[in-house]
Structure formats: C-alpha cells, structure tokens
Specification:
Layout (H helix, E strand, L loop, with lengths): L2 H18 L7 E8 L2 E4 L4 E4 L2 E7 L6 E8 L8 E3 L5 E10 L3 E8 L9 E6 L8 E10 L4 E2 L6 E3 L4 E7 L18 E7 L2 E7 L4 E7 L2 E7 L5 E4 L3 E8 L12 E4 L7 E6 L9 E5 L8 E10 L4 E8 L10 E5 L2 E6 L2 E4 L2 E8 L10 E2 L4 E9 L6 E3 L3 E2 L11 E7 L8 E6 L2 E9 L11 E5 L2 E4 L6 E4 L7 E4 L14 E10 L5 E12 L19 E3 L16 E8 L10 E8 L3 E10 L3 E3 L12 E10 L7 E13 L12 E10 L8 E2 L2 E8 L4 E12 L2
C-alpha cells in the first residue's frame, strides 16, 4: 500500500472512531459482552449499522452463552434498573451488583443466524417520572464465514446445467435463494440440501468465460475498514464453454407443470430447424441411446416469422435441468437436445406453526395479537404466491423458501373478525386455513376484589389473613372485567371455582358452600369483547346470598375462609389459587366470672393484715385479647363485683367473714393448656358488714373444664 493510501486509511479510521465511539445508552459508562474467552466492549467495538451505533461481538455457536457486564455512570440507579426480557435470548442469571463496581447477568442467545434487530432493553424507574424510562443498547452479532471453490472440471456445454460442491465452514450463515442470475457470462444459483452447499452453472456463450461468484451472508463480518459487511470476497474462476455434440434448441419456457388433467399440453415456441416437419410428433427422452423412458412429446404445428416453430409440448414425467439434457428424437434417433424443468403442480402437503419458546406443532389454532412462524411443506412451492387472509405478513428476507419449504412470519391482528384464516395461492383457495381461537389463559387474581366493612382490596394484593374488628355486614366479591384483557395482553374468559367455609371460634365447622363454574368474561373495553360467548356470571357476588348463617350473625373470632381457584380442566392443569381467611377480631370481652380466691391478705380496717380462708367472688370483668394474635387472652383481667370473704369458714371464729363490693384485678398464668390454674388477685373494696374500705391481694384457684 502506498504512503498516500495508508495516510488516507488512517485518517478515515480516526474519523470513524470519533464519529461512532459513543455509548449505546447515555446512562452507562461501558457495556461489555464476554463470549468464550473474548471480550467486546462499547469503547472499542462499536460500528455503525442501519444508521445507528451497535456494539458488535463475534460468535461461532448459533446459541451461545454470554456474560454481560454493565458499568453505570452512577451506581445509585442500580436498585431502579432492570433488564427487559426478550424473545431473542434467555436470561440464565438475573442482574446482580458486583461490589458496586458493575452489574452482571448471563444470557443464552436463540438462533443468532436468523435473529434481527438485537437490543438489550433496560428499564429505569424513577419517582420523578410517571412512566419508566427505556434505554436501548443495540448489539450486532458478527461471524467469520469462508467459502472455497476448486472445480476439477472446467468444461461446460452450451445449455447444460452443471453442479459443483462448495466448501464452507459456516453453512447456516450463507444466504441461499435458489434463484438464477441473469445476463452473466456464466449464470449461477446456489442450493442447499442435506447440509451441503451446491453451485449450479449454466452458460449460453462459447469459449472461455469468467465466472464471478458473489455470495452474501445472513450475519456480517467486520472487514478491513472496520465496517460490517455481508458480501464475501468475490470468487473468480475461468470455464471453457463448448458447443454440444447435438444442436441445442431453446424452449421459451423455463418450467412446465406436469398436470395429468391437461391432455392438450402446453403451447411453446422452439427454435426452428429445417429438419422439422410440421404436423409431426417427436419423442422426448432423458438419454441419447434408444430405449429411454418417455418424458414427453413435441407436436410441431406451424412456422413463425421470428425463426421459431410453434409446438405442443405434452409432459409425461418429471425432469430437472440438473439431471441432464432432454433429447428430441425422431423414432429412436436423437436429432437435437433441449432442456426444461418439468415439475409437479404446486401443492401443500403439511403446515406447521412455531411460537416463541415452543416447538413446531401441527395444531393450526392461532390467537389474536400473536406473532407466529408458519412452515408450509409441499411441491413446487417456489412457484406459489401464497397469501393469508386478514393477517399481516411480516416475513424477513432471511426466511427459507424453496421448492419444498416456504416459511412465513405472520402477525395476527387483535381485532381479526374471521374465525378462519384462509390460505390462497394466486388468489385461489388452497383448501388449507388457520383456525382463530380465543385466548383461554389464567390471569392472576388482580381482577377480583373483596369489599366489606369499609375496605376494598384486590385479591392478589391481600394477605392470607384479614382481621376485622367489628361486625361484618356482608362480603362482596367483585370482578373488574376490563382488567382481564389489558396492558396489551389477552387472557380470555376466566373460569373460576369458589369454596366458602365458615368456622366458629373453636374452629368448629359451621357451614360449607361451593360456587363452581363461575364464568367471568372480559369487559367491553377488550378488543375481543364481542367474540366472547357464553353464560357470563354476574359482576359481583354477595356472600350472604349463599350462606344460611349470615356474616353479621357470626360470633367473635369466627372465620370466613374463601378459596379461589381456576378451573384446571379449562387450563390443562394450570391456573392460580388463593386462600383468604377473614377473622372477626375483638380487643376485649365482657363476662361474669365466679372464682375462689384463697389466702387473701386484706389491708385497712380492724382486721388489717389478716389472712382469709377460701372466699368466693362473682365479678363482672373485662378480658383483653393479645394484639395480632387470634383468640389469645392477655394474662390479666379487670372487673367489678362482690366477694364473700372467708365464705367457707364455718368455725366459731368468723371475724373475717364479710360481704364486700370490690374492684378486682387478676393475673393468670400464660399457659393455655393447664386445666388447674392459680391466679393472683389484687384490688380494693368496701366491706358491707364492717362498713370499712380495704385493699386485698392474694392467690386463688381456677378450674377450666
């Protein structure tokens, strides 16, 4: 390279670096992709592609595992940053913060050779903005591909199609379109079958001719200028094109369809020769020697002024140009050679559908709003012009389409009206169609609400236990139908079952009811609302309409247990379930308690400091429940009542016997399983007999049956 060219190249590279060396997302300092032992980062591996800066990385496997490292400009955004899932890759390890230095996650790409418009999309939530910000990092997979062509035989014959194998180290990255070039010194096409790449050559020019073979790739490589390129280096070879031993006569058709219903054959124009006799039938065979199988017949009709002869061509068997010449015979003697493809009529044999994350299936059911890939197998599909009724064909150019297989990418409109998507070929129905089905997916219970006693909450937001501190007049179960088909996703009719269980404060069963076959249809704001047919249930359920013991009749610490579940028979065993317990909480309880304090010590009055015998107390008292515990008492009670001091003393010395009005408190042991307990009493009162105030403290006896 001369000094001037080298200087120009360096200037160009310098300008390219400072023009394109910008970060893909303004919130990141650097983005790194580690694949195998190689590292690619946004500071050194940026290229411009489709008018946008891309971080490129090299791959060899079609589904590689990569580690991605993100270095934010400000680590404070890390808690609010998340990676948006994509159909182009699977996330193996979620995003983690590595010592406040960088963010790391691992992914596995899906079919890089056929993926397009790859991006990492990051969502950044902010309290200052109503909607989260989306930051995109465009990425470009690149791979090296080589193709070698070393023909051992460089002789071609006019009109002959000859095949040569091509050697490549990356067959899946070669664009194979199966289409002949035109107006070249040597026309060619590429085909791929059974993992082998084949070059087909044909020429109509005599002498040494130059083949210039241009091959394009599906994924680019980085060329010497640092730019992505899809064009492999040209392969140039010389071939000697010779005339055939028999004169080659051209037919004005490239292909003829073998149709057994077409008895008349095809009207063709064949190059004229003085040997032909008008009104005579000539035999067409695939071999020069006598006794070959009949491929077809040519019946000469009349001469034309353009140096051609008008004929009827009646095909009887299939033939490919690549299989060799066709010989025009008079009796069993070969007079001329020609060539034409005789192929079967276009026919569809099978149709398969591929969805994201699934395998190919023969089930032709499709759903509104989804994007699918359709694979059609059959005969002569390269001649077909297949269209799909009322859907969007968004097929990229990289999809495989040849004689046997045609692939299409279809977008089903959300508001599609027809129940069938008819497949047409050249405007005529093929007899095949896709069936439009409504979604029947189980949605999380965010469309169900519970309302009662002033609260209304989504079922999905409720904890499993709800404590209510007053009488429950009723519980209303509501359904927000407009929420079912929302946020750009369709779920369809929700089939639910509801089990209602009422238990008392001792956990005894009071009532059991089941409401099955609830059918909750999406609301009118759904784009598919007019297509949901069925016996849709009411918009709300009043619990008291289904209970014999109403909610307002329940005692304290009773439980209302609601168990929601999807009908798994409708969702192939899938679906959500939710159990909620509504408990009638109380903070205190009032009752009359009879106990037997013993050994009380009284203070005040004439007998201050005396120890009494067994007394009997009848107290109207308040008991208190422990906070945040179910039906569990605090260890103390407070009440007002009467106490018969030394009531069971029948001796002659009855100085301590008296009736008193008291304000009494008591402390109980915290054990709940004890039948016999010894509470401690304390309080004050007024003795009615001795007419004096006093204080008391002492133990007692309590038996729990």
């Amino acid at each position: 390279m001369s000094g001037k060219k080298l200087q120009g190249t360096l200037v160009l590279l310098f300008l390219s670096y400072f023009s394109f060396a910008q970060l893909p997302a303004e919130i990141f300092d650097k983005v790194e992709i580690w694949i195998d032992t190689k590292k690619f980062d946004s500071n050194q591996n940026l290229v411009q592609y489709n008018g946008e800066n891309h971080l490129y990385f090299e791959f060899e496997e079609n589904d590689p595992v990569c580690e991605v490292r993100i270095i934010p400009k400000n680590m404070a955004i890390v808690p609010d940053l998340s990676l948006i899932r994509s159909s182009d890759f699977d996330v193996l390890d979620s995003m983690i913060n590595v010592n406040d230095q960088y963010l790391r996650f691992r992914i596995k790409f899906r079919d890089l050779s056929n993926s397009s418009f790859l991006k990492f999309a990051f969502q950044l939530n902010s309290e200052d903005a109503m909607d989260p910000a989306i930051h995109l990092v465009p990425i470009l997979p690149v791979t090296e591909t080589t193709v070698e062509f070393f023909p051992e035989d460089t002789d071609l014959f006019v009109g002959e199609e000859k095949q040569y194998p091509l050697i490549t180290d990356n067959l899946r990255n070669i664009r194979v379109d199966n289409i002949w070039t035109r107006n070249e010194a040597i026309n060619y096409r590429l085909t791929e079958e059974d993992g082998k790449l084949t070059l087909h050559l044909s020429s109509q020019r005599l002498g040494w001719q130059t083949l210039t073979l241009a091959i394009r790739t599906r994924k680019p490589y980085i060329n010497e200028m640092g730019d992505p390129s899809f064009d492999l280096p040209l392969i140039v070879r010389e071939f000697n094109v010779k005339s055939s031993r028999l004169r080659f006569l051209r037919i004005d058709h490239e292909e003829l369809i073998l149709d057994h219903q077409n008895l008349a054959g095809y009207e063709i124009q064949l190059e004229d020769n003085s040997y032909f006799t008008v009104g005579k039938t000539y035999r067409i065979e695939a071999q020069e020697e006598p006794g070959g199988a009949l491929i077809g017949e040519i019946f000469t009709r009349s001469y034309l002024n353009n140096g051609r002869i008008l004929c009827w061509f009646r095909p009887y068997a299939y033939h490919r140009k690549s299989e060799g010449y066709l010989y025009i015979k008079d009796d069993d003697i070969s007079r001329f050679i020609t060539n034409v493809d005789i192929i079967p009529n276009t026919a569809i044999e099978s149709i398969q559908i591929l969805r994201e994350g699934s395998d190919w299936t023969n089930n032709l059911n499709v759903f509104p709003g989804e994007t699918i890939e359709v694979r059609i197998r059959g005969e002569s599909l390269h001649r077909a012009r297949l269209t799909f009724e009322d859907v969007y064909d968004i097929s990229p150019d990289t999809l495989v389409r040849n004689e046997k297989i045609n692939n299409y990418t279809l977008k089903i409109p959300v508001n599609i009206l027809n129940r069938q998507i008819t497949i047409y070929n050249n405007g005529k129905s093929t007899g095949f169609s896709l069936i439009v089905k409504e979604y029947q997916r189980a949605r999380e219970f965010d469309f169900i609400s519970l309302e009662g006693n002033g609260f209304k909450r989504k079922l999905s937001d409720l904890s499993n236990t709800i404590l209510v501190d007053n009488t429950i007049q009723d519980v209303i179960i509501g359904f927000d139908r407009d929420l079912i088909d929302s946020d750009g996703r369709l779920f369809g009719i929700q089939y639910l079952n509801l089990k209602i269980t009422i238990r008392g404060n001792n956990n005894e069963l009071i009532e059991l009811q089941e409401i099955n076959d609830l059918v909750i249809c999406p609301g009118e704001y759904s784009p598919r609302s007019s297509f949901y047919r069925g016996n849709c249930s009411a918009e709300f359920i009043s619990l008291n309409n289904h209970l014999s013991k109403k909610t307002f009749e329940l005692d304290e610490w009773s439980k209302i247990i609601l168990e929601f579940s999807h009908d798994k028979n409708k969702y192939d065993g899938a679906g959500y379930s939710k159990r909620v317990e509504i408990i009638l909480q109380r903070f205190w309880r009032f009752d009359i308690d009879v106990s037997f304090p013993a050994g009380l010590i009284t203070f005040g009055g004439e007998n201050s400091g005396n120890l009494t015998g067994i007394s009997m107390a009848m107290i109207a008292q308040f008991s208190f429940y422990e906070k945040n515990k179910i039906n569990r008492f605090q260890p103390y009670k407070v009440g007002v009542g009467f106490i018969a001091l030394d009531a069971f003393n029948f001796s002659d010395n009855d100085d301590n016997r008296d009736i008193a009005m008291v304000v009494l408190g008591s402390l109980y042991p915290t054990r709940r399983d004890a039948k016999l307990t010894f509470p401690l009493y304390f309080g004050m009162g007024y003795k009615l007999k001795n007419e004096e105030f006093f204080f008391l403290v002492g133990p007692g006896i309590r038996v729990r049956l």
